[in-house]
Amino acid sequence: MATLEKIRSKSVFLIVVIGVALLAFIIGDALTNSQNIFGERTTIAKVGSTKIDFHDYQRKREELNNQLEEARRQNPAQFANFDTQVLAQMALDQLMQEDIVISAADKAGIRTTGNLLRYYMIENPQNQRVMDIVRQLNASGLSVQTPQQAYEVIFNPKRNGMTDAQMEPFQRLWLNAEKEMQETIKGSVYQRVLAGTVKANDLDKKALYNDYITTTAVDVAYLPYGSLDAKEYPVSSDELKKAYSEKKGLFRVDEETKDVSFISVSISASSADRAAARQLAQNTIKELRDSAGQLSKATKKEGVSMSHHAVRAADLPSGAVKEFVMNAPKDSVKLISETVQGFTVVRVGKRTEAVDSIQVNLVSAATEALGNKVLTALNSGLPADSVSVRFSTDSVAPQLNQWIPLYTAQGPTNAIADEMLDSLRSAGGRYVTLQGGPQGMLIGKIVEQKSPKTIYEYDLAEFVLGPSVKTVGDERAKLEKFLLENKTAADFVKNAEKAGYTIQNFSFTQSTPAVPRMMGMNSYYPDSRQVVRWVMIDGEDGEVSHIYESKNAITPALYAVAVERSYDDFVPVSNPDVNAMLTREVRASKAGDKLVGKFSKKTQSLQSAAQAMGVDPVNVSTFRFGHNAGVADPAVMGRINGSKADKKVVITKGEDGVYVYQVTGKGSEKFPFSDQMYEQQYYQLVNPNLLEMIKGDNKVKNNIYKFEAGD
User: Fold this and answer.
1) What is the mean pLDDT of the chain?
2) Distance between CA atoms of 80 and 103, rounded to whole angstroms?
């Protein structure tokens, strides 16, 4: 049912769980020039009358690309495995959300006030665009720490020793950021206003309150259907059509959808590949021993990588590498590991003593002239924490007692340039100029430095074993043979298992980023975006694709896909997931009728019915509507809650099994009524989709694959 759930919940406004958090750190694939292959030459998507322009889309991706690069610099491990296949659609989703909300806000006459704009541009330090401008100013040699300082430098350049021409690029950046922030604020205000329209009236709140305080004392016996025999409870095509007709509204789709059958062939290293890797390991050991730690071009070409490390003892990788590097003589070489995944060889280097961190005082000044005054004052005895008192806080920025790591677990940090470090160490405890020029000055002094520690240097030669060109070629030839013999979707599905392939069924739309893996949300087969592109642009019902390839050297894969059916209004009853769902429901209904008939004669008492069903009855003294884990079926829950306390034994079928219940009493608990609490409960119960409210019945036309080349 996973595919069906995706279809039923599908929307171009899909907010991916990692997406909202990661949209600020996104990079896209390369775009093509195929803008002229359909009528609206630059419209990449359209919702009602709202159009998303291709050039806006390009700008969005470039902006997100820059933000992702920054995120990867700050936290490379977190984003190392981020699947970039999703990024094109995520960027488009963000644009559609923004444009639709802004369009609705404009129609509603919502405007952004100056006070709000000032707060989000200057007073709120979380504005990413403004902080990017602050960083760019510093990178240009202008020392600013806050958005207010950045604004002053940008729009009062002469007061800060700059010209209008020098600040003009930064003025454009700031004004563009203001424009974007105005739109963001406007959209946010509109969504809050829209959310405020979903309110409970007094009757709604009182009904929720009454449902909670009203209790029912009930005895319940429940027999789940379990696994139902298809022969005992057959389901005809007419019964499926009838069930589909009754529930057709559940299966509506917003975009053109295609059901496909998909084959993925993961290629592993062969026994011959593994034997070659063992020989390569021996060659690597010999070269590192015989050539002063150098690998030959031939060995590197085979895929052996070499890395140099210089770390403290505490940062050495635990296990065999650490033991060998700490204890073996210099220039020793050893094969540390050799598995089916590859091998690792270590060569021990020299050992040195080095300080791994220093504590410094740093003071930045807005101009070189001011910096010289500050330097003189500090070396004349002015305490560093008094700099901001003597000099203008807008012109100087002290950073006191800052620890700078010179080594981390990754090795030397280069956190401070060698020439700066030399200047600090040779200053004899005085302040020195670390960097200076017309745009400002940086002054510093060492306060404290740690005792030297042993630094261990070593080289790692590593090889990750993947299948050879021959192994990949053999697998490709086998799949090509299968496709030549099975050129229709029907044959593709019918004969896949006999050929040793596993079929997976998916439903694709233009908004599907790539072929999803079964292992979890937002996990996709590598380089499978190209498969979805073929399906949505070229694939016709009954057709089979050519072979697509993921060319990762370590874990290559081959893909093939067959289009079974297409639809753009409702998922048909022929869809495997829809068919399975309705078959299960019809079969359960038949079983329920049979079991109710079977046990009806045994319902003289609840105990006798439970005994006949082979289950134990359960007593619930405070049964509440919507708050009962023991009864999962909502219809049965409603019947119990609405029954009189007449102690009548009732047997009924549910969606999940047969229930026998006996209502023995009614009660009312005296909880205080909270208007605010039931207002919140009502909103949570309704759970409005604000974007869907704005979108209404407008269909989405998504042209993204006509712009994207695919890989």
Assistant:
1) 85
2) 37
Q: Are residues 65 and 183 in the same domain?
A: yes
Tell me what percent of the chain is helix, strand and coil, each rounded to the nearest 5. 45, 25, 30
Q: What is the pLDDT of residues 346-358, one digit of tens each?
A: 999 999 999 999 9
Which of 408, 440, 464 is at the close of a domain? 464
Q: How confident is the model at residue 504 (pLDDT cuts 50, 70, 90)?
A: very high
pLDDT confidence bin for 6, thresholds 50/70/90: very low
Structure confidence at residue 693 (pLDDT): 76
State both tokens at 368: 């070189």
DSSP labels, 632-689: --HHHHHHHHHS-SS--EEEEE-SSEEEEEEEEEEEE--PPP-HHHHHHHHHHHH---
Mark which of 416, 437, 464 sits at the end of a domain: 464
Q: Which positions ≥6 away from 208 have C-beta within 8 Å?
A: 200, 678, 681, 682, 685
Q: Are residues 370 and 295 in the same domain?
A: no
Whether 483 and 618 map to the same domain: the answer is no
Work out the percent of the chain whose per-residue pLDDT is above 70.
Answer: 92
Which tens digit of pLDDT belongs to each residue from 418-471? 899 999 999 999 999 998 887 789 999 999 998 999 999 999 999 999 999 999
Phi-psi region of 259 (alpha: psi -120 to 50; beta: other; left: phi over 0): beta
Report H helices in 317-457: 320-327, 368-379, 387-390, 418-425
* pLDDT tens per residue across span 622-678: 888 766 656 888 889 889 888 899 999 999 999 999 999 999 999 888 888 888 888
| Whole-structure pTM value | 0.66
Starting at the earlier edge strand, list the strands of the sheet with 305-312: 305-312, 453-464, 342-354, 333-339
Nearest-Å Rg of the Cα atoms of the chain is 34
Is 190 found in the same domain as 48? yes
The model's pLDDT over 295-323, given as tens digits with 9 standing for 90+, comes to 999 999 999 999 999 999 999 999 999 99
Strand partners, 336: none
The arithmetic mean of pLDDT across residues 511-531, rounded, is 83
Question: Which residue, among 663, 667, 628, 638, has the nearest Cα to 649 in the 3D structure?
Answer: 663
Q: Is 400 left (phi over 0), alpha (psi -120 to 50) or beta?
A: beta
Q: Are 109 and 33 in a shared domain?
A: yes
The answer to whether residues 374 and 432 touch, using CB atoms and an 8 Å cutoff, is no
Q: Which of 356, 344, 358, 343 is nearest to 314 (CA)?
A: 356
Question: Quick check: 691 and 13 in contact, CB under 8 A?
Answer: yes
pLDDT at residue 436, as a whole number: 87
The parent domain of residue 420 ranges over 357-449
Residues near 299 by beta carbon (within 8 Å), at least 6 away in sequence? 280, 283, 284, 287
**What string of DSSP letters covers 562-626?**
EEEEEESSB--TTSHHHHHHHHHHHHHHHHHHHHHHHHHTTTTSHHHHHHHHT---EEEEEE-TT
Q: Strand 657-668: give its sheet, edge to edge.
A: 618-623, 214-224, 657-668, 649-653
> Do 338 and 241 belong to one domain?
no
Q: Are residues 529 and 412 in the same domain?
A: no
> Angle, to 10 degrees, between the axis of helix 147-155 and the axis of helix 164-196?
130
Judged against a pLDDT cut of 50, whether residue 209 lies above it is answered with yes
